[in-house]
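Hi both,

Apologies for the delay on this - the queue was longer than expected. I finally got the flavin-adenine dinucleotide-bound model through. Below you'll find the protein sequence and the ligand SMILES exactly as submitted, and right after that the structure tokens for the full complex including the ligand.
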Amino acid sequence: MENDAVGGNLQDHLAMTYSYKSRQRTLNNELRPLSGRLRAGLRYIATRRGPMSLSVNQCGGFVRSQPQAAKPDLQLYFNPITYSSVGSGATRHYEIDPFPGFILCFQPCRPTSRGRIDLRSADPEAPPQIDPNYMATVEDAAKAIAGGRLIQRIEATRSFRALIDEPLPPALAQLTDEAILEDFRNRASTCYHPTSTCRMGRQPGEAVVDGNLLVFGIDGLRVVDASVFPAVTSGNTNAPTIMVAEKASELILRRAANG
Ligand SMILES: Cc1cc2nc3c(=O)[nH]c(=O)nc-3n(C[C@H](O)[C@H](O)[C@H](O)COP(=O)(O)OP(=O)(O)OC[C@H]3O[C@@H](n4cnc5c(N)ncnc54)[C@H](O)[C@@H]3O)c2cc1C
């Protein structure tokens, strides 16, 4: 049975970062020198504490980009560290910046653009063809601009004004809406949350698996991973994937018990 939904409906979160030189010390001061990284590593081994015991996203939340938004539509991240890409090609890598700095970052929660993943050939070793089709809708463009403007409002609060020495280019306050959108298209990158290419639903054509995670048209085959999400979750995808796996193990055990 042919089913166009296989590989369709690809969704992902894009994140956009804005970096700032800080008036206060940040992890850059601690982790840029090799001696600091060694100290942090040893501290983690000895005490399980310090910067190595924490996520790089030390603070975050879900917010409405505008008061009239029906529900929170942006996820925020705050990282007390900045880094820059150094070198090119195979030697390209990231280095922590030589000044105190921090990052404000946002991710639109519910992207409306849809991409695809397809086989390129019948060779199982051949890489697939992936078309993420990011930022293809007016709604996604509007969310990118709203996110930039929200970060600009956060920058302008008294607490952040006291903390910010200067923004690293581009400075949001100098950007038009069009420039914010162009910058988003150039710099935003995946949050590694691709989902929904084997989405769960009621019938083939719109979906690949049913509510029991069984593939339409193939007896006894289940898909159990982030690809069955009907839509990408509004936040991170790891815990929801574990929930799908726990539900699947229940379904499989129940079927085994019933013979
Ligand atoms: C760099 C990175 C950072 C992330 N950070 C976060 C985060 O902070 N919070 C969060 O919630 N989510 C995060 N995610 C997303 C999260 O990890 C994924 O959404 C989640 O792991 C998806 O689970 P999955 O089972 O669908 O796929 P995976 O976890 O990718 O599992 C697929 C498995 O299939 C195996 N496999 C692949 N091909 C074959 C094959 N041919 N035969 C047999 N086995 C095969 C792979 O080895 C792998 O074990 C991050 C992802 C990445 C890549």
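Main takeaway for now: Residues 14-190 form a domain with the Glucose Oxidase; domain 3 fold (CATH 3.30.560.10).

I'll put the files on the shared drive as well.

H.
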